Amino acid sequence: MTGGAFKALADRFKPLLLGLPLLVTACISPVDYGAIRHADYVANGRCDPAADKGMDNGSDTAEKPFFVVTSRLPDCRANDIKLLHHRGDKVRFGRFGAPQDKLNEKGKVDGQRIPFAISNETQWWADLSKTMGNREGRVLLYVHGYRETFFSSSRDTAQIARLTNFSGPVIQYSWPSQGQLLKYAVDETNMYWDERNFRKFLTKLAQQSWTKEIVLVSHSLGARLVLPAVEFVDRNSSNADSSNISNIIMASPDVDRQDFERDIAEEILSARRVNNDRRITVYASAKDRALSLSDDVHGYPRLGNPRCFDPFKADELKAKGLPERCYAAKSRYDVPPEKSGLTIVDTTAVSQGRVGHSDYLRSAAACTDFAAVVNGERGAVKGREATHLSYVFALIPSVDDEEPDHMTICNRDRK
């Protein structure tokens, strides 16, 4: 075999070889129960505060401005409560703040901590009601993806709040992701385990009389938790259109593209819901290495990766002088809605980072677009370039010679 032929063969099987450690390790490495009984983690009353006590460790909303709903197992043995990667015994509610410097005995920075306290559920809903009432009933609900800890997802939640300057309360839904590269299969399992918990919470949130608008943001694997939950609310809501779940944003969604086309988009983006202002915005990138690997693992393309599964389609695009990128198709309607329900934003040209899986929080152009969408803009947002598909837009690099300050524009924590 010639050197060139060997290289071609190696390139062909490279995704499989890269994915093999993930598959093997995820399949044969169980999640350790640990040396401590899970019941001992939650034995302290801090895990289940009484109704008249409100939020444990004080209700300092300045330090803990964000809301959290979690199915993670808490560790309440020490003053600083931690959320672990295990499944919890029940869903809990709390408040948290952005990461802060942790000081040692000498007053020097020694890592970071998350200001966090568990709330009584009744008090939590009362606090949320009051906050939403003061902000015209708008709420942003963020669902993280694969390989996240409570620390990393809280950091991203705080960044989203800063970046978008969202006017209402911000809620993080934290499910028991393992926070480890080689635990994808465990994360996928825990995500499916948590579907009932999340849909019950989303249903209750959507049915509150003071909830006027839910901006639902998901990243990566989190989209697979969000979409069936929205379908469930649509089927069971007293509001036939569930129109307060209006703005659904999926960043790098690890969702089967064909499943989205066939079932999900058709249900969630029905004509009447789209006419009531329901819309979905998808951020996708051909440079997303995480989703490229997920494509190979699952055998079919992901919604957030515009890979052409059909080689004949890729050839057709190439013959027309178009990029070889394939996107989810729009829903087909007997009577088309007056508005556009699906928008796909291709971030390939402005992708940032080694993996390209979080452009909406890493790329200046994508961050700017994401903030605009959260705040209600749609269609011809500044910085988008039209493509041959009416619902697909490409973000283009700045015409300036200087590279934009991605960290500053995205309001990232430099620590």
From TrEMBL:
InterPro entries: AB_hydrolase_fold (IPR029058), DUF900_hydrolase (IPR010297). Signal peptide: none annotated. This is Alpha/beta hydrolase. It comes from Parasphingorhabdus litoris.
